[in-house]
Amino acid sequence: MLSSGGRYDPGTNSWSATSPTEAPAARYIHGAVWTDEEMIVWGGSDRTVYLSSGGRYDPDTDNWTATPTSGAPAASTSSGRSGRAAR
User: Fold this and answer.
1) In angstroms, rounded to a whole number, what is the distance separating the alpha carbons of residues 18 and 38?
2) Considering Cα of 18, then 83, then 78, then 39, what sign does the dihedral take?
3) Structure pTM?
4) Do 46 and 26 meet the contact criterion of CB atoms below 8 Å apart?
């Protein structure tokens, strides 16, 4: 399991590394959605426990922000499903 990421720019057909600063802990089988402004990652597993944490990534600023855990859904996995958030 890796704790790194990348972002793809279709305009230049190239990849660049995302900042690891404040990124959520490495995980797999998590949920992720694109809101037209940011990528939100939630849940998943670190191979030992299910996680009830996540983060929001803003590609314009290359910054991560932790998502609040108070009142958040229970720890879970997404079974590999990702998608686009409704507005």
Assistant:
1) 13
2) positive
3) 0.77
4) yes
Structure tokens at 35: 């809101």
Contact 8/31 with Cβ under 8 angstroms?
no
Structure tokens at 21: 């600063």
* Tens of pLDDT, residues 4-58: 888 899 999 999 999 999 999 999 889 899 999 999 999 999 989 999 999 999 9
Burial per residue of 59-87, b for 16 or more beta-carbon CB atoms within 10 angstroms, e otherwise: eeeebbeeeeeeeeeeebbbeeeeeeeee
Q: Domain residue spans in the chain?
A: 6-78
Structure tokens given for 76 = 């879970």
CA 9 to chain centre: 18
